Structure formats: structure tokens, C-alpha cells
């Protein structure tokens, strides 16, 4: 389980996150919703050890304290991030991108098994191992980005705006793929603008407003909540 307890992040004088507490269990999909600048990316970056701000509070994965650990050690403990904009290497092939995802000791041990698992999850990638990623469609590049993160053999996969720039059809495919990641027993924590499609596959969600977690509920309840409908689902 990934647990953030009372996490506060400051960029100089600016508090981007204030006393945020968020939990994600294995085999669970959790969505974080919130307006631009609310602090959503900051939360994911703090958990991954790549936040430029000062992070305080408690961040634990399977009991291991992540706070202060360098990003590569955090990957080793079992937390992978698919950053906003995907972070793939466009000049390298699919296979090379996937291999680069298996750099941690934890991943290298089982690299062949993990690669098979990624190919089972995304059969298209197994047909395109030699394709240069920059020549792929946005949806395919997103598969590579998720596949690469999966190569680190995570227990928790975090994603920052994974559906950004994808058509509604490709977004649907993306969310179905994330549901399959969950079925592998992996916990999924994502920040999403697409509240409707992400809540449809999620178990729970959190709303962040002005650096604070203001609401937490099951995805089903959030979808029924009039305030959530008005702010995030375009209803009302
Ligand atoms: P968006 O949906 O627009 O990406 P967000 O909810 O992910 O928004 P964050 O990126 O977490 O928001 O940013 C929260 C606040 O912290 C914003 O006011 C932002 O300008 C500020 N911020 C983010 N990164 C830095 C940084 N490296 N230095 C200074 N301020 C930052």
C-alpha cells in the first residue's frame, strides 16, 4: 500500500500541497481530480522523489519510508511514475524504451518475465518492437510509456494526466488498459482531467482544491455527487 500522510509541499513561500493524505492499495484504481494548479502533479512528484519543492509529512510504500529517498531508489521499492507528456525516448525503439524501464535491480532480476507481461498487456508493442517511438501515434506512445513504467515491476503505478491529447476513443482504450493493470494486482494512482472516463474505471477518488484534499469517496459516490457533477462532469 502507498500511503501519504499529511504531506505538505512548498515551493519557496508557495504551499502547493497542504496536509494531503492519500492511500492506494494494490489492485485498486484511485483518481485525483482538481482544477489547474490545485497541486495534483505536485502530489505525484512528491511520492516519486522528483519534486523540486520542500516535502514534509509521511510517504510510505509497503511500510518503507520514501521521503528523502532518491527517485531511482523509490522505483526500486516499487513505485513507478508515467509523467505528464509521457517521458518516452522518441528516437529510440519500442524495445529500447522498454529495456530502459528495467534499470532497477528489482526489475532486472525478472526482466524477461516482465517483458512478456507487458507484451501480453499491450500485444501491439510486441508487434512493433523495432519501431522508433517518435513515429508512433499518441495512443501507442502512451502504451510505451505505461509499458516502460511496468518494466520496473511496480506495486503502485502512478500516472500524470495519461489521457491528455488522446481522442475519446483512444482514451477509452487507455482506461481499459489501466483496468487490466489493476487486474494484475497493481495499485493505480492517476491525476486526470477526464473525470468521467477515469471515475468509470476507478474504485475511489480524491478532490484537491487550493492545495488541500477537500473530499474523498468511492468513485460511484463521486459520480453521483452534484458538486462533482457540476465541477468535473459537465452536468448541471
Ligand atoms: P495542472 O492540472 O495545471 O497540471 P496541478 O494541480 O497538477 O495543475 P501542480 O503542477 O501540482 O498543479 O502545481 C501546484 C502549484 O505549485 C501551482 O501554483 C504551480 O505553479 C506551483 N509549482 C509547481 N511546480 C513548481 C516549481 N517547480 N516551482 C515553483 N512553483 C511550482
UniProtKB/TrEMBL annotation:
Segment forming the signal sequence: none
GO biological process: L-amino acid transport
Domain ABC transporter per the UniProt entry, residue ranges: 2-235
Assigned keywords, A-Z: Amino-acid transport, ATP-binding, Nucleotide-binding, Transport
Molecular functions (GO terms): ATP binding; ATP hydrolysis activity; branched-chain amino acid transmembrane transporter activity
Similarity comment: family membership: Belongs to the ABC transporter superfamily.
Name the UniProt record assigns to this protein: Putative branched-chain amino acid transporter ATP-binding protein
Upper classification of the organism: Bacteria, Pseudomonadati, Pseudomonadota, Alphaproteobacteria, Rhodobacterales
Range covered out of full length: 1 to 236 of 381
Amino acid at each position: 500500500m502507498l500511503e501519504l500522510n499529511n504531506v505538505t509541499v512548498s515551493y519557496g513561500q508557495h504551499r502547493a500541497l497542504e496536509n494531503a493524505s492519500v492511500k492506494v492499495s494494490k489492485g485498486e484504481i484511485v483518481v485525483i481530480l482538481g482544477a489547474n494548479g490545485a497541486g495534483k502533479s505536485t502530489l505525484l512528484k512528491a511520492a516519486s522523489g522528483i519534486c523540486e519543492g520542500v516535502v514534509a509529512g509521511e510517504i510510505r510504500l509497503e511500510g518503507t519510508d520514501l521521503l528523502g529517498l532518491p527517485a531511482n531508489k523509490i522505483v526500486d521499492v516499487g513505485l513507478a511514475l508515467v509523467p505528464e507528456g509521457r517521458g518516452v525516448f522518441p528516437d529510440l525503439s519500442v524495445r529500447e524504451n522498454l529495456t530502459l524501464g528495467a534499470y532497477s535491480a528489482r526489475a532486472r532480476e525478472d526482466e524477461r518475465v516482465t517483458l512478456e507481461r507487458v507484451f501480453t498487456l499491450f500485444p501491439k508493442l510486441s508487434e512493433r518492437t523495432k519501431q522508433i517511438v517518435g513515429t508512433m501515434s499518441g495512443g501507442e506512445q502512451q502504451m510505451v510509456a505505461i509499458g516502460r513504467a511496468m518494466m520496473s515491476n511496480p506495486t503502485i503505478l502512478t500516472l500524470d494526466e495519461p489521457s491528455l491529447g488522446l481522442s475519446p476513443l483512444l482514451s477509452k482504450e487507455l482506461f481499459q488498459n489501466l483496468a487490466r493493470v489493476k487486474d494484475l494486482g497493481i495499485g493505480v494512482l492517476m491525476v486526470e482531467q477526464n473525470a468521467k472516463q477515469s471515475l468509470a474505471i476507478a474504485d475511489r477518488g480524491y478532490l484537491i482544491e487550493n492545495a488541500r484534499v477537500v473530499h474523498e469517496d468511492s468513485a460511484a459516490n463521486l459520480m453521483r455527487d452534484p458538486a462533482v457533477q457540476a465541477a468535473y462532469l459537465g452536468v448541471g
